[in-house]
C-alpha cells in the first residue's frame, strides 16, 4: 500500500484531462476493443489499448436515495463477499450483503446471499444510473439499477 500525497492527486487529475478518451460503447453499440501488442500481432489488427486506465460510466440524474425511492421491491447491494465470473461464458456468482427495499424504502439488512446470472444478459437489464460515481479508484461507476437480477439465500 502506498500513501498518496494530495499534490499527487491534483497532478493525476490534471493529467487525466489531457489523455485521449475512447468510448467503448456508445448508444448500446460496441465502438472499440481492448487490443494489446500481443493480440495485435496474433490478430493482425492495430492495437488500441491493453486495458483502460480509467473506466467511466455515464451518470444519471438521481442520487442513490432517488433510485431507491423508485424501486417497489428489490435489494440494495452494499458489498461483495467474494465470488467468481467465467470470462468465456459470462456466468457469475457473487456473495453479497445489503438491504431489502420495499415500497421505495430500505427495510431490513441482508447478508450471506448470492447474486447469480450472466454478465452479458445483466448489462441488458440496466435501467438507470445514479449521479454518484465513486471517485476512489480508476473506475468511475455510479449506483446502478438492474431489473430481473437473481438473488438466492433470502
TrEMBL record:
Keyword presence, Protease: yes
One GO cellular component term noted in the UniProt record for this chain: cytosol
UniProt keyword list: Hydrolase, Metalloprotease, Protease
GO molecular function, one term: metallopeptidase activity
Enzyme Commission designation: 3.4.-.-
Domain Metalloprotease TldD/E C-terminal: 20-153
Keyword hit for Protease: yes
Pfam families: PmbA_TldD_3rd (PF19289)
An example Gene Ontology biological process: proteolysis
Official protein name in the record: Metalloprotease PmbA
